[in-house]
Amino acid sequence: MDASVGLRATPRASSWAGQHKPHGAFFSGRVPASLTSEKPAQRPLVLGSGTPMRSMEPVRGARFKGLCCKKSAGTEKVHYSADEALILKQKAEDVLPCLNDRCVYLVGMMGSGKTTVGKIIAEVLGYSFFDSDKLVEQAVGISSVAEIFQVHSEAFFRDNESEVLRDLSSMHRLVVATGGGAVIRPINWSYMRKGLTIWLDVPLDALARRIAAVGTASRPLLHQESGDTYAKAYAKLTALLEKRMDSYANADARVSLENVAFKHGHDDVNVLTPSAIAIEALLKMESFLTEKAMVRN
Ligand SMILES: Nc1ncnc2c1ncn2[C@@H]1O[C@H](COP(=O)(O)OP(=O)(O)OP(=O)(O)O)[C@@H](O)[C@H]1O
Ligand SMILES: O=C(O)C1=C[C@@H](O)[C@@H](O)[C@H](O)C1
Question: Its pathway (predicted)?
């Protein structure tokens, strides 16, 4: 039976929108022992300070010396509904043995939820979460991608992004939220192919709405000094997606929010919670890995 039967696509007004977002991982010295071959401990399905910290060990890759991944010290938590928590746990248990410690790379447009959904997937798999944009900021020593574009250039950012992905590709048991443009360089695919790649495919209207809600200051490719933020973001996202669509389609699995909403009887993707999307991503991962194993045998 499809494990997602019974999953509720809860309207955000009563769930996601009313909740605190999970805090991001950040880096300042070391990475967790989970990057080694240790098996994941069973942990409660709560993100934030309710999650026990994993023990820390020095990272091996030269580039990440001096960096560390650590849970926020804040008090915010993300609660899943009982249904979602159970399904997330079951799906994670199904996927883990097939994943064989490989990393998971989330690709997709800006605002597609790679960070939000990636943190949930990392949590349930007992993996560590990395955001490649944040790693580039750390490596360059500038605290925002927008400033890196301004002070240096987009090409400089892209070179550093490739180096970050190369270094991550030698590690295990990570969920990585990649930058929206990471897919455009073939070399980045050679790194990401060492793990599993998942495309979060979100309709442009939903992307533009999400981005307009928080502003474009942190997204240099969308930033405009004036004008209607939604309309400008929508136009720019449309042009970017046209150029990148084929590259995103290289991913091992695609989570189409339109399809997920349809599956749950909705015609609006905005009702889908991040955890419902994370469940779909785990289902897609399982299908891909199972098919791959069948082809091999
Ligand atoms: N399922 C969802 N429903 C509504 N809003 C969401 C959902 N998932 C993420 N968001 C919101 O959309 C915005 C972008 O999400 P997020 O930062 O996770 O995307 P991203 O793909 O990592 O973006 P970027 O590549 O620009 O860093 C955030 O404000 C987040 O709170
Ligand atoms: O879509 C893009 O090209 C980008 C997305 C962000 O994640 C950042 O990597 C940067 O703003 C570029």
Answer: Metabolic intermediate biosynthesis; chorismate biosynthesis; chorismate from D-erythrose 4-phosphate and phosphoenolpyruvate: step 5/7
Q: Phi/psi at 40 (nearest 5 deg)? A: -70, 140
Residue with tokens 């560390």: 68
- Cβ neighbour number for residue 181 with a 10 Å cutoff: 20
Domain limits of the chain?
80-296
194: phi then psi, degrees, rounded to nearest 5: -70, -15
Q: How do 253-256 and 196-201 pair as beta strands?
A: parallel
For the Cβ of 116 lying below 6 angstroms from any atom of ligand 1, the answer is: yes
Taking residue 51's Cβ as centre, other Cβ atoms within 10 Å add up to 17
CATH of 80-296, picked from 3.40.50.300, 3.10.450.700, 3.40.50.10540, 3.50.50.60, is 3.40.50.300
Residue 80: band (very low, low, confident or very high) from pLDDT cuts 50, 70, 90: low
Give Dmax (Cα) for the chain.
57
Respond yes or no on whether ipTM tops 0.95: yes
232-284, pLDDT tens digit by residue? Answer: 899 999 999 999 999 999 999 999 999 999 998 999 999 999 999 999 999 99
Ligand 2 pocket by C-beta < 6 Å: which residues?
110, 133, 145, 179-181, 219-221
Question: Do the Cβ atoms of 107 and 197 come closer than 8 Å?
Answer: yes
